[in-house]
Amino acid sequence: MVSGLINANPILYEKKERRARSAPSVADEYAVEPIDQQEIFDHIRDIKDPEHPYSLEELKVITEDAIEVDDQHSYVRVTFTPTVEHCSMATIIGLCLRVKLMRSLPSRYKVDIKVAPGSHATEAAVNKQLNDKERVAAALENPNLVDMVDECLAPSFN
Amino acid sequence: MAEQSHLTQHIESFVDSSRTSTQLAASLDAVASLVKTDALTIESLVREMGMYLTTTDNIVRARGILLLAEVLKCIESKHLESATIHSLIGFFTDRLADWKALRGALVGCLALLKRTSSAGVVTGSDAKVAAQSYLQNLQVQSLGQHDRKLCFELLDCMLERYPKAVAELGDDLIYGICEAIDAEKDPECLMLTFHIIESLVQLFPDPSGPLASFAGDIFEILGCYFPIHFTHPKGENVDVQRDDLSRALMSAFSSTPLFEPFVIPLLLEKMSSSLQSSKVDSLKYLSNCSSKYGGDRMTKHARAIWSSLKDAILSSLQEPVFLSSSELTDGLDFQDNEIVTEALSLLEQLIMQNNDLLLSLIVGDEDVNMIFNSTTSYEEYNDISLQGKQKLHAIGRLLYITAKTSIASCNIVFGSLFSRLMDLLGFSMRNTSGDSLLIDDYVPSERLHFGGLYLAIEMLSGFRNLIAGSENLILQSLSEHEICCGMLCSFSTSLVKAFGSILATSSNNGPLDSDIYIGVAGLQIMATFPGDDFPVTKYIFENILVTFMSIITSEFNKLTLWKLALKALVRIGSFIDRFHQSERASSYCHIIVDNLVSVVSLDDSIMPLLVKLEALSAIGTSGMNYMMKIARGLEEAIFSNLSDVYVHGNLKSVEIVVQLLECYSCKVLPWIHEKGGAEEVVMQFAFNIWSQIENCLDFSVHVLEKGLLNATMKAIKFAVSSCSVENQNIIIQKAYSVLASNTSFQLNESMFISSSIELEGLQLSPKAYNLSQRDEWILSLFASVVIAVYPQTHIPNIRAILHLFLTTLLKGVVPAAKALGSMINKLVQKSNGAEVSNDCTLEEALNMIFDTKIWFDDNGILKRCGGLGNSSGVGLTDLCLGVANNRLLQVHAISGLAWIGKGLLLQGHQKLRDVTMIFLDCITSGRIRGALPLMQHFNGFFSTMVPILQSLIVRSDSSFSRSLLYRAFVHIMSETPLVVILGDAKKLIPILLDCLSMLTEDIPDRDLLYGLLLVLSGILTDKNGQEAVTENAHIIINCLMTLIVYPHNTLVRETAIQCLVAMSELPHVRIYPMRTQVLRAISKGLDDSRRAVRQEAVRCRQAWASIASRSLRC
Amino acid sequence: MATLEGGFQLREVQRLEGHTDRVWGLAWNPATGNAGIPLVFASCSGDTTVRIWEQNLSSGLWDCKAVLEETHTRTVRSCAWSPSGKLLASASFDATTAVWENVGGDFECVSTLEGHENEVKSLSWNASGSLLATCGRDKSVWIWEVLPGNEFECVSVLQGHTQDVKMVQWHPTRDVLFSCSYDNNIKVWADEGDSDDWQCVQTLGEPNNGHTSTVWALSFNAKGDKMVTSSDDLTLKIWETDNIRMQSGDGTAPWSHVSTLSGYHDRTIFSVHWSREGIIASGAADDAIRFFVENNESSVDGPSYKLLLKEEKAHDMDINSVQWSPGEKRLLASASDDGTIKIWELVSRS
């Protein structure tokens, strides 16, 4: 784990401040708040990068605009941008994203995780793996991987 | 000898690397205590340990040396012979070379060097040798974090304790330190290294000394940490925070002027960084360093610093925000961001070091001059371009600071810039006596230039704060000859005129916020220069007041203008107060306060009363004596209107007096009470209310409508409650006499002298059974007095009063019921020791209340009341149970009972039990649901209630009465403090769960349900609660799972899920069996219609999923 | 196929709960469902267990007869009955294949086949029950010979796929093995001249109108001259071979692409199964079950296929497996990520 001090300022981006939502008035107790872009973003913004002590948001690996959601048809698509072209961690990050959404969204949801076009050397390969649920399932039975994922997810559950 | 063997055991166990840390600690303690208790001398310990300290087995040797070192650490305060110390330090000094046993060596040296003189210390020469060995043998950066930390602590200690000795090492020392700290990364170590640098440079103050040549190298190491960028993983609890590091680094930077040539350029460079934090740090560091390095060294950087701090401000200031919150701040101060604040304080710091160069830079600055030249080109604020506005704002701030810092700087600003500004604005010098203002020929040439006035205000407020800030010290020495004063005197007339005219113009064609703001702010600043007649003349001051006053009285339909003017007046008032300006105070009084008061009393239709009152109460807050005047004014108005009501039944006056009373009791009284020391007025007020009633014997009853009554009661309550016992006694006596003599109630004292047995005699005249409005009026007022007094206050003829209240509450006079409750409450407090001043005891009072017989005719109309014994009447209790088939009577009786119960609550008097039983009967008899909400009064004696309820619930056969009992239970529960509930949580939880499931059936119960759920969550989240919970884990979880989908209240679902999260903390053996069920249930929560619920569900799902590592889904 | 004309509808017979994690696979016991033997099938799941379900002849509904646990330590990906219905084999992510014997209703694990480096994903018995094939993430396909006494001997390890192998399936009548893979290819393996010398005799990939993404499943028609494959590229593909040449004993008769059923599925098609009477059922990640039949209107370019019926939201989540039952009724079982199994009957609407 990286610890201590980095003197060269790494490329950090200001966190988007959490937009407060206007709570629906008591009047409409039965009002429905559909799952939207921001809600999905809030689920994944705090996921920690496997290598750095920063959140995926801080590293601009994910942004709110890179999320497509259609609550009516229970579909989410997250496009993420690895920090470097050959980021060995791309699949882990993708895995984290998938797991976090798996644990946070209603079971009716279909989730696609994709690397942003041109952002990774082996784009196609990464995408294919991340969306092969058999491989994901197998990965999630591997204790080491699970520990790694859980560590990255930990901050995102608070 | 026994010890010997023990000793060897302990040593053996300590060097045995297989032992647990606790075992090691134990053996260390054992050895240490042997030494402490002199059972073993340190010398003999060393002898005993001989081979452990010297063996070639690295591990054993390391452990051995560490043991000896740790022992020394434990006995640092024990006296040791200098010889012993000498040999010990010698030993450890050598060991510094033994890198396999380094830990011990470091600990040992540290322990010895830290010793205090009383316990015997290491000699300077030994310390020097130690330092040498340190420098020769240690490759600090090749060690692990813990050892590095020790090394630095040791170094730090040497520099602190033995400066002379180590200083002799000269260049070696400096070089060695550089090597040791180079590229350190661990925060804790860095805290030390920064401090080491600090102490190091103290050793070689001489600018031509050894440090001089190394300063560059040292700073090379130091500089790369700036700005501190902390990337410690979150969650890992680090006790060193970014700010600590930054502060430590800063004091290292500023520790010696020798760094100046390296520091300042670096900081200036980093100021251009895009990161806000590094900008801010650079500014902080700059002002810290410049204060340490001194003016002379900074002079050569003045130009660079000025331009970059100017840029910082220019780039980070937005356009000025006018009236964003319609909040008129003192002067033109806006919420600046951190950069600006730091930049300005740096500027102040530099000017403070009277850096003439800097001042000349400011005055000659191109941006400044650009702004000045452009001021004439715009009239209105809105004409100015955005950049223009930002520049204006920034330059304004800069000039404000410059003017505010010192007389010298102020003079320069005024001498050059201010005077120039006056010309630009077309003001001409005029003689300082402002009387020319009357026949003033000066009319603002054309529409005034906004920018110019804006800057003028900034400079003026700077000047004002300069003198106002400095507790008159400057003011004394201030004379005409100071340029700034001269300027102010010469132009004050024109300025005031100008500001005034802006407000005037703005009032014709729709006022621009910016204009209003600048006009008001300008006048306010001019009016808030200390000194009665200098530098701003009394005449001008009064003129300003007049201007404002006319706005208050005639411009109230221009809300912004009016509000700001009022605020300004309040500020001026409190400013006068703060600076004890006697003359100005009197002007203020008669121009503002007196006028306003008179305006209130005179009944003109121009200015709405509410507006008058708002102004009045606001002005009052600027000083006690003003408020006093106002209070008296209000009183007069109140009483004159009241008499209008009483005597002529003038309905119009009713509205007026209600408003007056509102203002008096909600604004005036609280303020006075908070400031304290004006009780007389308050007391008088209460007293007068009564005398007035007394004086108009038969006031017309028909107009006594509730609004007025409530307002009056409120006022009286507040007045009385803020009086002392003595005054309360006076008031209540007065009130009583009015009650006794002016109503049809017969409160014949004689009846009550002897014991209550003779109550038989009491009667109320039949007429009294249908209360006259007048009587009810007086009674209610009296009740509010009784409620307001202290327990110690004497209530005259208390039995009669009790009785009166009892009777009248049956007639539905709610204040009477409340008063009765409050009397009981006070008696309880007394019976618990508070000093007694009434001869009536609590028991007596209660008997009277519950044994008094009441008669009513067949229509349930109350006929007669009073008497004890077995006469044919019924008691309060029977009424509650509805013996008189008179619904109304029953409700009155019950609410009365409720208030009495509330009164008893405080101490949980045993009588409560009876009261409760009556209630429960009412409930189970199901005849009166209205009583339910009153149950919440009874949470106080919860512990009495619960068993009763439980038994009743078990016994109750009809589901209807059971549900009523449940509801009663819920009402109590939800009002009971958690601590009480936690007391017997075990017992409560099952019934609590029954209630929950019962409440889920009826939509109307959803809020009740929520309240109860909160109780449960309270229990769950409390440590003590959890044991109780564990037993019932299974049923609780089942219940909560059903609530996850409760459709009628989002909060219920949310809370239920939070409770489930809490449950996941329980021992896993208990809850694991439920895991799969819970996860399945919670998945519904993930798809809830409400976001809040979904978020909780995610947390909950995670909490339960992670009980076992496997199965991440399902 | 006259019987297939006219409308059909799908009737949900039963919804079976019990697994505590997603259900991956299903297998009907081929020796049941006729001669009064109640229908039996096995299901396997991410909860590391295999469950045996048996139909109650009176109620017509299924009950869980046995839970096979504490043998596999990770997900059981698939299972298959030997033709005799005596043995059940299960393939698990724990890198082992377990073989269970049915001894009067209760099952005991009679042997565990180890060899694959990691996850075993699929297995298949040949027609005679003398051979068992397994495949997995290690890109290899293993062929085991069944020896007396429940002994299994690896006779060949087939390398050739460049990525993990998703499924293996023996030809219904001949000892020719088919495998499909994450590398988008389908490979045909045959034993050249009875010397346990297994070779890849054909690779059906993109060049021969093959799939453009992972191939998840394959299934044969009753005659064995047609094969259907399902893929992540959202298509089903029909392949056929020259039956005459095959009958003539030439195992290497090549397979060729007949038609592609595209535009029907919205997400990955995990499972496809061809019924005896020629109805193709598919189960996909879009939670739907679809049925296709050959289109009678003879068209110029070979046979075409049409959608017979689509059951939306057949399950709450992905459908991992669809399997036609033996016996005369048109019964279909489906397994899903929602942890349930459903039994359906395809009935004509008349």
TrEMBL record, chain A:
Pfam families: FeS_assembly_P (PF01883). Keywords: Chromosome partition. This is Protein AE7. GO terms for biological process: chromosome segregation; protein maturation. It comes from Quillaja saponaria (Soap bark tree). Residues 38-113 form the MIP18 family-like domain. InterPro entries: FSCA_dom_sf, MIP18, MIP18-like. Belongs to the MIP18 family.
From TrEMBL, chain B:
Gene3D superfamilies: Leucine-rich Repeat Variant (1.25.10.10). This is MMS19 nucleotide excision repair protein. Keywords: DNA damage, DNA repair, Nucleus. It is found in: Nucleus. The lineage of its organism: Eukaryota, Viridiplantae, Streptophyta, Embryophyta, Tracheophyta. Belongs to the MET18/MMS19 family. Residues 46-314 form the MMS19 N-terminal domain. One of its GO terms (biological process) is iron-sulfur cluster assembly. Key component of the cytosolic iron-sulfur protein assembly (CIA) complex, a multiprotein complex that mediates the incorporation of iron-sulfur cluster into apoproteins specifically involved in DNA metabolism and genomic integrity. In the CIA complex, MMS19 acts as an adapter between early-acting CIA components and a subset of cellular target iron-sulfur proteins. It comes from the Eukaryota. It comes from Quillaja saponaria (Soap bark tree). InterPro entries: ARM-like, ARM-type_fold, MMS19, MMS19_N. GO terms for cellular component: cytosolic [4Fe-4S] assembly targeting complex; nucleus.
From TrEMBL, chain C:
WD repeats lie at residues 16-54, 69-101, 113-146, 158-189, 208-243, 312-350. Keywords: Repeat, WD repeat. CDD domains: WD40. Coiled coil: none annotated. GO terms for biological process: iron-sulfur cluster assembly. GO terms for cellular component: cytosolic [4Fe-4S] assembly targeting complex. It comes from the Eukaryota. Transmembrane segments: none annotated. Essential component of the cytosolic iron-sulfur (Fe/S) protein assembly machinery. Required for the maturation of extramitochondrial Fe/S proteins. Belongs to the WD repeat CIA1 family. This is Probable cytosolic iron-sulfur protein assembly protein CIAO1 homolog. It comes from Quillaja saponaria.
